[in-house]
Amino acid sequence: MSSGLSDAELATRVAVGAGEILLGVRSGDLLGGRLLGDAGDALAQAWIGTVLRTHRPRDAVLSEEAPDVGDRAVAQRVWIIDPLDGTSEFAAGSDQWAVHVALTEDGAVTDAAVALPAMGEVFRTDTVDAAPANASGRIATSRWGTSYEVAAVARRLGLRPVPIGSAGAKAMAVVRGDADAYVHSGGQYEWDNAAPVGVALAAGLHCSRLDGTPIVYNQPQPYMPDFVICRPELAADILDVVGEVWW
Which CATH class is domain 7-124? Predict the structure, then answer.
């Protein structure tokens, strides 16, 4: 047991460990489809929950796959996790799924890691590189279709839509420089984007709600209606376009 781990190191090791479990669950042909996704969710959650109870027993936890741990309403430190972001991509054999582990304090992400296990990548707040200087001319979109708001941003700013799987995979495409923006207006939950937003902010990217207000985590109801992650120089234009078509 390594009780002296920093929060960023713990987040990273938890995300990487869960990713290794998920890769093991997906190996072979013993499970498929929904059963494969359910097994991945459950086993990754069990690993993450056990590690956090062991190393941060006083912290609260908000997870997609388990009841809250501790009283989030009064806790100063709250971990927000998604053991398997992109269950359908995972079950279908795609590489575009992720593990999200974030620590929040007073509504802001302080330390986080996003693992993309099938791609062999992990992004962490304390070591992530700044986003590349050169823009890609692309915008990350859902593989299942593009919203009206995203289509408007792409058209007005001349960005080519690139379909990408899970929320974490989309956000890390912007961090990596493979896309310039990820605009979401269809509703998510805090666990879908807390770790990606933490990493994106550490990389110097713009993150906000689509009305331009800051993203605040650990809300009583963890529903997150909308947000944008983008290169800083595009933020004002993106928010202007969304404001024109959204209200």
Answer: alpha beta
